[in-house]
Design goal:
Elements (H helix, E strand, L loop, with lengths): L1 H13 L3 H21 L3 H27 L3
Length: about 70
Amino acid sequence: LGLCFVLGGLAVASNSSLYHGVGGLVLASVVGCGWLLSLGASFVALVLLLVYLGGMLVVFVYSVSLAADPF
């Protein structure tokens, strides 16, 4: 899980495409929450997953709308 978490972080840092970067960010957050689940912190993992994915969705939609706007 640690290796997948690092690879997700590298995917975010190395991709210039917005869509691939968000995919890496989702991968890193899901694997990080899975890591917390394996440590026995299920409630914390669930709360972090909901907060992170909600925040990432808002930022992703805002960024896509700015990129699509010609002015």
